[in-house]
Amino acid sequence: MPSKLFLKRSSAGFASASGIRTRTSVARATQLPPVRVTQLTLSMPCVLDHRRPGLLAEILTNENVTADVIADGIHVDPTMVQLLFKIKGAEKLVLITDAISAAGMPDGTYALGSLEVEVKDRRCTLNGTLAGSTLTLDAARRNLMQFGHCDLQQSLRTATLNPARVAGAPKKGALEPGADADLVVLSPDGQVVTTVIKGTVVQQ
Prior knowledge:
Layout: E1 6-8, E2 11-13, H1 19-29, E3 35-37, H2 54-61, E4 65-70, H3 78-88, E5 93-96, E6 108-112, E7 115-120, E8 123-126, E9 129-133, H4 137-148, H5 152-159, H6 161-167, E10 183-186, E11 192-197, E12 200-203
Parallel strand pairs: 2-3, 3-4, 4-5
Antiparallel strand pairs: 1-2, 6-7, 7-8, 8-9, 10-11, 11-12
């Protein structure tokens, strides 16, 4: 099957396109900002080959592109998460989870649509292949602090303001007049204590 760069509106991912094809497609996509790459490094063979730099190299060097990352240490190695953070910075990185019904749950068998996925040691697999994750966003944020050696404010931005901007949701992701009163109260060690949606406490 020929390599393809899949673009939907201004999002790209799961691609093994050549450097030339990637640059052409991303340049075209940047006319429809914001541009993002989803699940960075997944399904990208030869991701940093010196002669076929491909999608990953283009994303790392293109300041107009925001990168999504599953910071669970399984989908993306902690060292790669650190590299992504160092290059893209807190302003151009978005934390995602790829979570399924097993999110935050112990080992066992869980549903992924009509399929059954086995969870062991935080790894979700279907016939030996990764199939979603157990990652929660608060855990992803803590992982980013550990893997990327960043501070609390930087990690919070990647889980709040950045995804809101990429999604085109101006009333989300920030504490300011006119924004939705959606809040998460964290403990000193980063655990979720209270959740507030539009000013109403829904979990405590």
